[in-house]
Amino acid sequence: MRPLTMKRLLWTCGALAGVLLACVVLALKLGAVPISVTDLVLNLGRIAIGRSDELPTEYRLIVFDLRLPRILLGIMVGAALSVSGASFQALLRNPLADPFVLGVSSGAALGSILALIVAPQFALLTPLGAFLGAGATIAAVYYLGRREGQLDSTTLLLGGIICASFLSAIIMFLMTTLAGRDLRGMVFWLMGDLSTPVPAGLRWIFTAGLLAAIGAIYTTAADLNLLLTGEREAIHLGVDVTRVKLVVYVSASLLTALAVSVSGAIGYVGLLVPHAVRLLFGSDYRLLIPASALGGAIAIVVADMLARTVVAPTELPVGAMTAMAGAPVFIYLLRRGLR
Amino acid sequence: MEFESSRDLTNRAEANFAKTRLAAPGRWVMLLIFFLFDAALPAQTRIAQGAAQSPANAPASHLFTDEIGRRVEVPAAVEHIVSLAPNLTEIVFALGKGDHLAGDTDFCDYPAEAAQKPRVGGPVNPNLEEIVALTPDLILATRAINRRETVEALARIGLPVYVTDPHSVDEMITSVEHVGEVLHAEKAAAALVGDLRERLSYLDRRIAATAPRRVLFVVWTDPLISVGSGTFIADALHRAGARSVVDTAAEWPRLNLEEIIRLQPEVLVFASAHAGDTQHDIDALRTRPGWRDLDALRRGKIVVISDAINRPAPRMVDAVEQLAHALHPDSFGRGGSPANAAHIAEEACACAR
Q1: Chain A, window 52-81: residues with a beta carbon less than 8 angstroms from a chain B beta carbon
Q2: What digits encode the pLDDT tens for the residues B162-188?
Q3: CB-based contact (8 Å) between B73 and chain A?
Q4: Sign (positive/negative) of CA torsion A323, A326, A332, A334?
Q5: Is B43 near chain A, with CB under 8 Å?
Q6: Using the 8-state DSSP alphabet, how is residue A61 labeled?
Q7: Helix, strand, or coil here: B75?
Q8: In Å, how far is A182's CA from the nearest CA of chain B?
Q9: Binary contact (A313, B127; C-beta < 8 A)
Q10: Which of A221, A251, A227 is nearest to A239 (CA)?
């Protein structure tokens, strides 16, 4: 791979942003109610010059209150999941690391189920419960993964898998014994679902948290490159390994918790997108992080577009779509990379 | 408050935009971000404006409190209804408002016209865009099968959603009255409700003297699933002079066959749209270990009733009558039998062999 220059970084990110924009336009166009691109541009223009009253009500409701917020949510969830996947892979120096392998999604699911049981009348508590559950699980897995004061990547992964199955068992127990009606939605949530719009207040918190966490991880990008060669080597090269690990671990956990709290458990993205980006553009984290964010966004926007349209008017959970499409893409990229 | 501030932001963004005129692509990005996050006017405002512009002098809308305590503002004239559950679809048709039903779910199969309506997906995961595209002025939902998130999402974009929540036969009838009020079909509702109550009180009088039969209501055989004591089906069984041997708070308990063999229900009750298919299943059960140890199955004490019992809608009373007649044939003289009694007796005989 050629060395990374600022020019190549900008070109790659620009190209990915272009692809993302094309996907967004396509996703806006396709859906239960088809919309022509000309109309879309025209109406965006109308709103831009402040003449939004001229739009038909249903059109505005569908495109601007349902479809567009959902696409944007998909962009952010995709970016969050793949950046946190890329970060965990560097942190643990293990290509299998992924927020879901580490048990985070199960923790978030349990948290939101508990929130539903304790206070079913407060809808805002569900994402908060998911967030706390994800955070608590990450802390527990981190604690389990420490051996003799060092973070051992194999132990950590095993701890994550053990936590995930233990928490899944508790979830099954709760869903069987408390077969209350409000837990019905959990089935969708456990498979990943973007169909539920996020309340306006939460969107801003979500965006701010997302940008802060990705920013924090990006500041350590150069250190992560060195960390990949080995912890001891990185220390010798002057990297403050403890600080880098802490920053990345907390930020990546925050990203996962944010994503899971609004969209449920969407698998594969955190694992596949960073690997795909590595095979396409090399493994320099200064490029890998922004490219993964854009790639994850593209992956989720496309997956959700398919989930909405393939069996319309019924919807598939987006998690089923990412799993179905993810594996073949991964095999293709792997074989291409091997050649 | 929140909406006003976002509107201010939009205005400011638009003002800036007008000043600089496509100065930088950054502006477009800014603008796009505003749209993505509620920069467009909130739906509530829009609907309110729409109502203000309408020339009607009569009150443009009525305020209701639905069965889960939400406040719902419903237009005075409801022209486009979207039903998110099969039982609500049946109620809409029973009230004579089938013509105003703009859309329903994949599971709405009764009456036959319901299956011809535009579909908005399944009750648990309907397509919100499809619902909006049908321009409903009222959406009906029920707590037992629709998701809270769906109701909240529709309400947030300004569509009125009335949620019912019946837990018993009587509450189902009350729901019919409520839906009648919301749809402004009070007369039809009063006639329907009067008829249903009369039929139920006739049943009550007839079976008052008889001891309830101990039954197992079979929802599913693999695994065995029955109904909990808090469900409307348990109440329907009770109204038909039966008592479920299963006493649990869970709504759809998955049961251990051993426990059922210990309890030995007098009668097994199945619900089916096609008695023939069920007969086939029952024949298969007779040879299976565990099931064949049930006295009721060995002695052919089996009743197959209409699957209408699974839906809290007016037809449920038909199923209650069927069951009452099948379980307590001696309580009903020839004269007082409703039209479907003979059919039930036949069905019950066929199963009893």
Answers
A1: 52, 57-58, 60-62, 64-69, 71-72
A2: 999 999 999 999 999 999 999 999 999
A3: no
A4: negative
A5: yes
A6: I
A7: strand
A8: 7
A9: yes
A10: A227
Q: Are B114 and B139 in contact (CB under 8 A)?
A: no
Question: Within a 13 Å sphere around the CA of A133, how many CA atoms are in the beta-carbon half?
Answer: 31
Binding-face residues of B in 141-200 toward A, CB within 8 A = 143-145, 147-150, 152-153, 156-158
**All residues at 6 or more sequence positions from A94 whose CB lies less than 8 Å from its CB, including other chains:** A153, A154, A157
Chain A residues with CB inside 8 Å of B154's CB? none
Q: Is the pLDDT of residue B350 over 60?
A: no
B29 to chain A, closest Cα gap in Å? 11
Coil, strand or helix: which one is B65? strand
Interface test with B, best of A24, A35, A46, A47 (most B CBs within 10 A): A47
Please list the alpha-helical segments (H only) found in chain B: 2-20, 25-36, 43-53, 86-94, 128-133, 148-156, 169-182, 186-207, 232-239, 257-263, 275-286, 295-298, 316-327, 341-352
Residue with the two structure tokens 């251990």: B256
Q: What average pLDDT does chain B have?
A: 79
Q: How many residues does chain A have?
A: 339
Q: Does B251 touch chain A (CB under 8 A)?
A: yes
Closest CB from B40, B120, B124 relative to A60: B40
| C-beta atoms of A184 and B147 within 8 A | yes
Question: Considering just the CA atoms, what is the radius of gyration of chain A in Å?
Answer: 20
- Using one digit for the tens of pLDDT, what is the confidence trace for A198-229? 777 778 888 999 999 999 999 999 999 988 88
What pLDDT score does B192 carry?
95
Burial class (CB in 10 A: 0-12, 13-18, 19+), B184: middle
d(CA A217, CA A313): 40
Most confident of A84-88, A113-117, A128-132, B20-24: A84-88
CB–CB contact B128 A185 (8 Å): no
Query: pLDDT class for B25, splitting at 50, 70, 90?
Result: very low
Q: Report A:233-292 residues touching B (Cβ under 8 A).
A: none
Length of chain B as a residue count: 353
Q: Which of A93, A223, A226 is nearest to A152 (CA)?
A: A93
The alpha carbon of residue A326 and the mean position of all alpha carbons in its chain are separated, in whole angstroms, by: 14
Are B124 and B141 within 8 A, CB to CB? no
Dist CA B165 CA A151 (whole Å) = 52
Question: What's the rounded Cα separation, in Å, for the pair B222 and A238?
Answer: 63
Of B96, B127, B93, which Cα lies nearest the Cα of B108? B93
Residue A201 distance to chain B (closest CA, Å): 8
This prediction's pTM: 0.77
Q: Which two tokens stand for residue A287?
A: 């490029």
**B317: which 2 tokens?**
């009373």
CB-based contact A21:B36 (threshold 8 Å): no
Helix and strand numbers (H, E) in chain A are: 15, 2
Q: How large is the ipTM?
A: 0.74
Q: How far is CA A298 from CA A22, A77, A273, A304, B152, in A?
A: 9, 11, 10, 10, 28
Chain B CB contacts of A315 below 8 Å: 121, 125, 127
